[in-house]
Amino acid sequence: MKRKGLIWGSCLLIIIAIFGGVVWRQSRRTTVAPRTTKVTKSAASSASKAKAKPVTQPQWLKLKHQLKLPILMYHSISTGNQLRVPQAQFAQEMAYLKAHHYRTLTTAEAIKALETNSVPQKKVVWITLDDAYKDNLTKALPVLKRYDLHATINVITGFTHKSNHLSLAEMTRMQRTGHVDFASHTVQHLNLNELTAAQQKTELVASKQWLDQKLNQNTQMLCYPAGRADATTRKLAKQAGYKLALTTQEGLAQMSQGRYNLERLRITPGMTTATFATLIQVTNS
Question: What pairing do the DSSP bridges indicate for beta strands 124-130 and 103-104?
Fold first, then answer.
C-alpha cells in the first residue's frame, strides 16, 4: 500500500509540474504581446508623420528691377505667309529653349510673374499661338511634348466649328496633356477698336464664358485680334475679369506698359536660330 501511494504521489507531482509549465508559457506570451503592439503603433505613427510632411515648392526669385518678359507670338505652324512658321523652324526654336534651359510659362505663371515681379528661374519665356489653328494640335503639340515645353493658345471661340481651327474636343485633348492652356481671342476676331462699347463687351464676355464653361477654367488672359484696342476695350477687359491683355506691338512685356497693353515678340518664317536667340535674350535681376 505504501508503495502504491508513492507511485500515485509521483504521478501527481509530474502532472502538476506539466500543468504549471503550460500556464507559465501562456502567461509569458500575454505579457510580451502588448510590447509588440506598442512598437507597431509607434512605427505606424512615425510612417504617418513622414507621409504627411508637406512638399516644398521651389521658391520664386524676387527681382530688384522690373521684369522684362519675352512673349513669343506664333500663329499657324505651317507655310504660306508671314504669319505661318514652318514646323521645322518651330522645332529648332523649341530645341533652343530646351537646350538653353528656358522655363516656358503657363498663363497662370506669367500672370504671377508680372504681378509679383518675380520668376521661377532667371530664364523665362511665354509662348503664345493666336487663332487656334488645327495645326497647333498636329504640328505644334508634338514638338512641345518632345521638349517638355508649354504654350498658350488664344482661341476664337466662334471659329471652333471651322475645319482649319481646333474643335472643342481637340482642345480638351490638348488641355489634358499639360503642355497647353487656352486664353481668349474674342468670339469673331473683329477689330475691337471699331466696335461700339456694347459690341466689344459681347466679344470679351461671351468668349470668356465659353472657355470657362467648356474647358472648366477661369480664363484670365485676353489677346486682342490684330492687336487692336482702345481705352474702352481695356476698361471692359478689366470688368470682364481678365487680368492681362496682349497686343501685337513689338517688344518685351513689362507692367509699365499697362497690364492690358502688353507687347510681344513676333516670330516670322525664315528667322534664323541666331536671330531668335538674340530676340529673346534678356537679363532680369
Answer: parallel
263-268: Cβ within 8 A, 24+ apart: 263/71, 264/71, 264/72, 264/73, 264/128, 265/70, 265/71, 265/72, 265/73, 266/73, 267/72, 267/73, 267/74, 267/85, 267/93, 268/82, 268/85
In sequence order, which residues have a C-beta less than 8 Å from that of residue 96 and are 6 or more positions away?
273, 276, 277
- Rounded Cα distance between 280 and 97, Å, is 10
Residue 193 has pLDDT above 50, yes or no: yes
Q: For residue 13, what is its C-alpha cell?
A: 507531482
Beta-ladder partners of 223: 246
**pLDDT for residue 51 is more than 70:** no
What size, in residues, is the chain?
285
Would strands 262-266 and 118-119 be described as parallel, antiparallel, or unpaired? Answer: unpaired
Q: How far apart are CA 153 and CA 132, in angstroms?
A: 6
Tell me: pLDDT of 221 over 60: yes
151 half-sphere exposure, CB direction, 13 A CA radius = 28
pTM for this predicted structure: 0.80
Q: How far is CA 89 from the centre of its chain?
A: 25
- Alpha-carbon span 40 to 44, nearest angstrom: 6
